[in-house]
Design goal:
Length: 194
């Protein structure tokens, strides 16, 4: 059984999708902790309803990133967290956690990286006028939306409205985040790269 912490700042639809796949038995993991840097993020209530421990904090109440990440690290260590799964966590991960969890922090981003990093990736792609965008799942490093790419899922967005693109991107995320996590945790990803 893999113990995971999900970090999220917002709605938590990816959190819900992963939780559903755990409940169904598809993913052999347990969400031991939800971390949020946004005290009123809807994901917090969703986690509490499921009796999942929550650590929410206001970054401004800490002098440095290292300080609050030390707290998060302590929680993760106490709960024996194996993997950190970022699901809409709008903050860069610092050295404290990167060093504690090398190649164990996974992110999902709504574009085909390295294109359209950062906030508003779907809007960036639409504004640029690309015909194809998609979703990237990757291990993180110290740079924003960089690090070893694990999987990418393209989406043709020609003749689609903004709402249709947003919906389609989320549908891909909800299906493929769990599928990719399963591959990583059950060895399929390593096998295909060795
Ligand atoms: C997703 O689009 C994800 O790719 C990005 O943030 C969004 C989070 O959505 N990193 P939700 O909170 O899971 O609904």
């Amino acid at each position: 059984m893999i113990n995971i912490a999900i970090f999220a700042s917002g709605t938590g639809s990816n959190f819900e999708a992963i939780d559903k796949q755990i409940e169904s038995g598809y993913l052999k993991a347990e969400i031991k902790l939800v971390v949020s840097d946004c005290l009123n993020a809807p994901v917090i209530e969703k986690a509490k309803q499921r009796n999942i421990e929550v650590f929410s904090f206001h970054p401004k109440e800490y002098q440095t990133k290292r300080e609050y990440e030390k707290k998060i690290k302590e929680k993760c260590m106490a709960l024996k967290i194996d993997y950190i799964v970022l699901a809409g966590y709008m903050r860069m991960i610092g050295e404290e956690l990167l060093n504690a969890y090398p190649r164990k922090i996974i992110n999902i981003h709504p574009s085909l990286l390295p294109s359209f990093k950062g906030k508003g990736a779907i809007e960036q792609a639409l504004d640029y006028g690309v015909k194809v965008t998609g979703v990237t799942i990757h291990f993180i490093d110290q740079n924003m939306d960089e690090g070893e790419i694990i999987a990418q899922y393209p989406l043709n967005i020609e003749h689609k409205s903004k709402d249709e693109v947003i919906q389609a991107i989320h549908a891909i995320e909800h299906e493929f985040y769990s599928k990719t996590l399963k591959k990583i945790w059950e060895g399929g990803y390593e096998e295909s790269t060795n």
